[in-house]
From TrEMBL:
<protein>
    <recommendedName>
        <fullName>Pyruvate dehydrogenase E1 component subunit alpha</fullName>
        <ecNumber>1.2.4.1</ecNumber>
    </recommendedName>
</protein>
<dbReference type="InterPro" id="IPR001017">
    <property type="entry name" value="DH_E1"/>
</dbReference>
<dbReference type="InterPro" id="IPR017597">
    <property type="entry name" value="Pyrv_DH_E1_asu_subgrp-y"/>
</dbReference>
<dbReference type="InterPro" id="IPR029061">
    <property type="entry name" value="THDP-binding"/>
</dbReference>
<feature type="domain" description="Dehydrogenase E1 component">
    <location>
        <begin position="61"/>
        <end position="359"/>
    </location>
</feature>
<keyword id="KW-0786">Thiamine pyrophosphate</keyword>
<keyword id="KW-0670">Pyruvate</keyword>
<dbReference type="Pfam" id="PF00676">
    <property type="entry name" value="E1_dh"/>
</dbReference>
<dbReference type="GO" id="GO:0006086">
    <property type="term" value="P:pyruvate decarboxylation to acetyl-CoA"/>
</dbReference>
<dbReference type="InterPro" id="IPR050642">
    <property type="entry name" value="PDH_E1_Alpha_Subunit"/>
</dbReference>
<dbReference type="GO" id="GO:0004739">
    <property type="term" value="F:pyruvate dehydrogenase (acetyl-transferring) activity"/>
</dbReference>
<keyword id="KW-0560">Oxidoreductase</keyword>
<comment type="function">
    <text>The pyruvate dehydrogenase complex catalyzes the overall conversion of pyruvate to acetyl-CoA and CO(2).</text>
</comment>
Length: 400
């Protein structure tokens, strides 16, 4: 576990009340959190964080944890059917990424997508209702566990096919570059996938095009150590995934440390948005559940390994320690916050259960376009270069 420190003239003072307050942001040490490949610079090894920022990260991560534990229970009660891939243990990855990116940046991920949907504009009620297959779900009960989507917040969903989201992410990066006037910083696109998908051919092809065209694309491997039921040592001959882009730069980040993820992704976004091309990112993380709810997760790893990780590297315990060490919170305040969040999650789950199933008629909606007229009109941005038809191979429907 990486320790936190307070440095410089940012001294912490204790208020006269029982609550702890800081005179300003605390500085946290991130030494050892990063490894780089084919880069002359690296992410900062310290980061500033205010009390509000750290509290917000803790509350989001704890909400994710409680939501996924609740989904586990609802699945076992047979209220959730089909596939269900839980994210507990990996909360620092999604939270840190979203702290570094903004809603103009495009986000696409794998089937382990409940928590990203929550953080990108969703609510516990919407997520759980979707898992129940009810119409108040994020995709109106039609997507289920692997297919959340929120175009308004540029979240392009979970993808049910292993690795298939990565070429789509490269397409989002292409769109971001295409729609940005020359010389301006581009929104980035991030495509998250697991270590089990890292050797797929479609990822190599997408990386090749992203490098050729210098797309603002982040290839993000959430290395939770196991591809389905197989350890990385057994399924990959090259497990330094951040080096897999060959000449494409890469960075490995401690994915159990939300502050390291945030600082590392700020560095990565700056690189990609400035026109320097794509980057590979490897998040070193760990999943507490099995690959999915049908996988007990203990046949290819032992319970002692899971318990050891929980006791020494848990991302939530890290954030709680940061809050206490910086005197942003007391242990009692954290317990009260946990109690409040557990109650709120349970209330939203109860509300989700009161939703209705989609009507039969609605099942046939959203399949075909209602019309072929562009919603934004036919005007092209001024920087878009249209084809010169006089130089085209085809003139008036015939070869020149």
């Amino acid at each position: 576990m990486l320790s936190t420190v307070v440095k410089g003239n940012r001294s912490i003072v204790r208020a006269a009340t029982s609550r702890c307050f800081s005179t300003g942001p605390a500085v946290f040490d991130l030494s050892g959190s990063f490894q780089t490949h084919n880069l002359e610079t690296a992410p900062n090894e310290t980061t500033e964080c205010t009390k509000d920022e750290l509290w917000n990260m803790f509350e989001l991560m704890y909400t994710m944890r409680r939501m996924e534990i609740t989904c586990d229970n609802e699945y076992k009660a047979r209220n959730i059917r089909g596939f269900c891939h839980l994210y507990d243990g990996q909360e620092a990855v999604a939270t840190g990424i979203l702290q570094a990116l903004d809603e103009k940046d495009s986000y696409i991920t794998s089937y382990r997508c409940h928590c990203i949907a929550l953080a990108r504009g969703g609510s516990v009620k919407q997520v759980v209702a979707e898992l129940f297959g009810f119409e108040e779900g994020m995709t109106k009960g039609k997507g289920g566990s692997m297919h959340f989507y929120n175009k308004k917040n540029n979240f392009y969903g979970g993808q049910g096919i292993v690795g298939a989201q990565v070429p789509v992410g490269a397409g989002l990066a292409f769109a971001n570059k295409y729609n940005t006037p020359p010389g301006e910083r581009m929104p980035v696109a991030i495509g998250c996938y697991g270590d089990g998908a890292a050797n797929q051919g479609q990822i190599w092809e997408a990386a090749n095009m992203a490098s050729l065209w210098k797309l603002p694309m982040i290839f993000c491997i959430e290395n939770n150590q196991y591809g389905m039921g197989t350890s990385i040592d057994r399924h990959s001959s090259h497990s330094d995934y951040y080096k897999m882009g060959n000449h494409i730069p890469g960075v490995r980040i401690d994915g159990m440390n939300v502050l390291a993820v945030r600082e590392g992704m700020r560095f990565v976004k700056d690189h990609c948005a400035s026109g320097q091309g794509p980057m590979y990112v490897e998040m070193m993380t760990y999943r507490y559940h099995g690959h999915s709810m049908s996988d007990p997760g203990t046949t290819y790893r032992n319970r002692e390994e899971i318990a050891f990780t929980r006791s020494t590297r848990d991302p939530l315990e890290f954030v709680k320690k940061c809050l206490v060490d910086a005197e942003f919170a007391t242990p009692d305040e954290l317990k009260e916050a946990e109690k409040r969040i557990r109650k709120d999650v349970q209330q939203q789950v109860m509300e989700a259960k009161e939703s209705a199933k989609p009507s039969m008629d609605s099942l046939f909606e959203d399949i075909f376009a209602k019309d072929l007229v562009s919603r934004s009109g036919s005007e092209f941005p001024p920087h878009i270069r249209m084809p010169d038809y006089a130089k085209s191979f085809w003139i008036d429907g015939k070869p020149e």
